[in-house]
Amino acid sequence: MIVQELIFYAFSLVMVFAAVAVITVRNPVYAVLFLVLAFFSAAAIWMLLEAEFLAIILVVVYVGAVMVLFLFVVMMLDINLVPLKEGFIRYLPVAAIVAVAMAIELLMVLWSRGRFGVDMFPVPPPHSADYSNTRELGELLYSNYLLPFEVAGVVLLVAIIAAVALTLRTRPGIKVQNPSVQVRTRRDASVRLVKMKSEKPRGA
């Protein structure tokens, strides 16, 4: 129990440090790398809770795909950091008040759990050798939470369509393609046959 608590606190401190570094470092590439560290720490905490499937999905999907994409985008774009830092000090008091309020709420929750005799760090009961975390998650997700899962899928689909519709707007001075015109193209309109006499090499 003591070892699990020490590991939990260690990964939690690393995750909090990485999350703070994401919003404080000046280099955006370093910010992305610190976000990867925060995801790894969260995955380790999920492993302590015996949620192996969620931990692997977090590492494979977010760290292996999404964060790599973010890293390539940040490195390819020429980001001007001066406009991004403007107004940071102006919003610092409001951010500090929100952070203190969130910390007080978390401390109140922890204090109430310990006060009413609830174990703050319950150890999951041991499972048999044939226990599958993925199967349990699938059965729970597609039985009790089927409707919220489908609603979330529809919301994500609408968000994707909206993002595509917002980015495909016509801008002046930019060449755009019309697929309906392209598919109606015929050979006579695209290819022109030119007949030329054969040329003799010089000095023949």
Question: What is the strand and helix layout of this fold?
Answer:
Layout: H1 2-24, H2 28-48, H3 52-76, H4 81-85, H5 92-115, H6 133-141, H7 146-167, H8 179-183, H9 187-190
Helix pairs in contact: 1-2, 2-3
Structure described in brief:
With 204 residues, the protein is mainly alpha-helical. 68% of the residues lie in helices and 0% in strands. It has nine helices and no strands.
Mean pLDDT across all amino acids: 80
Can you count the helices? Answer: 9
General shape: elongated
Low-confidence stretches: none
Helical residues, percent: 55-70%
| N-to-C order of helices and strands | HHHHHHHHH
Strand content: under 5%
- Write down the domain tally: 3
CATH architecture of the largest domain: Up-down Bundle
Structural category is mainly alpha
Query: If you consult CATH, what is the topology of the largest domain?
Result: Four Helix Bundle (Hemerythrin (Met), subunit A)
Main sheet summary: none
Report the span from N to C terminus.
96 Å
- CATH superfamily descriptor of the largest domain: NADH-ubiquinone/plastoquinone oxidoreductase chain 6, subunit NuoJ
> So what's the CATH class of the largest domain?
Mainly Alpha
The number of E-state strands comes to 0
| Alpha-carbon Rg, integer | 28 Å
Describe the structure.
With 204 residues, this protein is mostly helical. Helices cover 68% and strands 0% of the residues. The protein has helices spanning 2-24, 28-48, 52-76, 81-85, 92-115, 133-141, 146-167, 179-183, 187-190. The longest helix has 25 residues, at 52-76. The protein is elongated, with a radius of gyration of 28 Å. It starts with a helix and ends in a 14-residue tail after the last helix.
